[in-house]
Design a protein that fits this description.
This protein is mostly helical. 40% of the residues lie in helices and 7% in strands.
Length: 120
């Protein structure tokens, strides 16, 4: 415990009293609250911002645009009424059919067959 007294080596310990950690600075940049004055009472209150100009925050604007474009592209590649998993299953079955030279509709023959009996 004598090391705590060495303020030259362990200056961080003596910087804040009571062993507190330094507070983080959680700045939100252009999304930070702005203060507005209430006309009736004259008091200030914080007002949150949801939309910000692309000029103030270009990185977030570009990332949001990429997310929207990827979503629209993905949705446009699906047939009407077809989910992603249905399309994935259809594509896998078509690849299997082409790889093994099976006739079209081979998967329906498998699904219509009865349960296979397992031997003990």
């Amino acid at each position: 415990e004598s090391w705590r007294g060495d303020s030259d080596t362990y200056w961080e310990v003596h910087r804040l009293k009571g062993g507190r950690q330094p507070q983080k600075d959680f700045k939100m940049g252009p999304y930070a609250h702005t203060m507005a004055r209430d006309p009736e009472t004259g008091k200030l209150y914080p007002v949150a911002r949801f939309f910000v100009s692309p000029r103030k925050d270009p990185v977030t604007f570009i990332v949001n645009c990429l997310c929207v474009l990827v979503t629209v592209y993905t949705a446009s590649q699906l047939s009407w009424g077809e989910s992603f998993f249905e399309k994935r299953k259809r594509v896998i079955r078509e690849k299997i059919r082409q790889e093994y030279g099976l006739p079209k509709g081979w998967e329906h023959e498998i699904e219509e067959e009865e349960e296979l009996e397992l031997s003990d």
